[in-house]
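Worked Example 4.2. Consider the chain below.
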Amino acid sequence: MTKKAFPVITKRVILFIGVAGFVLCSLVIAASYWAFNRQFREQYDASIREIAATARASLNPDDFAKYRANPVPDKAHKEVLKLLQRLVDQFDLNVIYVSEVEAPDYRHIFYFYDPVGKRTNWKPYPLGYEEDYYEEGYNKTTRRVYEEGAELVRHTIKSRSGSHITAQVPVYNSKGKIVALLGAQKNVQEFVDARKDFVRNVIVLALIFGAIFVTAFAVYFNFRFIKPILQITNETNRFANTNENPNDSLLDIKNKDELESLAISVYKMENVVCNNITALTRMTIETAEALASAIDAKDAYTHGHSTRVAEYAREIARRLGKTETACRNIYLAALLHDVGKIGIPNEIINKRGKLTPEEYDSVKQHSVIGAQILSNITQIPHIADGAYYHHERYDGKGYPVGLAGKKIPEIGRIIAVADAYDAMTSNRSYRSQLPQDVARKEIGQGIGLQFDPDFARIMLKMIDEDKDFKMREQLDSL
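Applying the procedure from the previous section yields the following structure tokens:
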């Protein structure tokens, strides 16, 4: 089974979790950003309300008309101005002021204006100083206080010195009428910088924890689900392609969930299928052996020939490294390679003397007849090829087609060397069984001429290993 650290499905899960993590991180960042801003606004608004409450307690709005008629600071004005100066220092403001605003252009008439904050170099305005201020956003907030009765408005501006927030609250006279507004401006560049650092830290932490989470989840998901699924998939594919015995590794899946149940079910199913295949294969082989025995019985001198050729061919296939199923198919093809002899007259098959050219041509037809008989068998690959091509020669001088080299189907080249060896080591109507060394010499001389060199060399090795010359027709059993 090919091992993959992260198969396709795991990569897709990682991608999905990554996207979901990105969305989640974005929501966390947005929520954090919103919460950070909200907390600052609440703290700032609380400060403004405290400032307004303190200032309103000291202000006497009924005096504003007097100040406007005679803009000369008196003792009460100076006391209020000192109070406002203390508020500037206490709350680290840029400026604090009290002004009357005239519609429609919202000209400011300042009763108190003190920019003594540490962040500005502005000079205080004298009592009664008038100024036209045409900043659109600022005028909108002022209009909300005067026309809509807003209790607290904020306006953010950006300048070379950074970001600033100006807050305004209404000032009422003894009759409850708005006669002025109290404004306070604070530099919030530190807040802006802190917010940037906060967002940056949140992003970094979100990416780090997101990467750790995605990696941990991917590893867990791969080990917990993907690995067992791949193991089951690979095993079913292997079994479907080879029909070989079930792999006990399926029983190693101990997930204690549906995957474990699935693995056990697949293992049981493979066992049932394998047993059925074994029974069917056994029946197929027994049927083929019975047919091969009937074929050999037609020729008094080929007793057991088909079985021996099949065994030799299967051993060659095994030494080539072929699967158990492939070896079995080659065995069956070799077992029935001479089935076409059914169509050859007995008098020719059992003739003791040399065959005439016409008789020899008739015998050669058994390859064609055999292929026709076996052509309807579709469940055993190349079984008809074994009958049709087993008399072809590697040098192209064989029959029935005269193919040469690798153009001859592999099954034909394997059976050819096995068939030739057994023919030499068996009694025939025209000669007796040849000694093992003579048969070996013939096989060696036929390399590259009659036989495929690779298969012939395997046959030679099998002969050399057969010290007791068991690979032959056993005469004492006749």
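The CA atoms of residues 394 and 405 lie 5 Å apart. The chain has 14 helices and six strands. Compare this with Example 4.1 before moving on.
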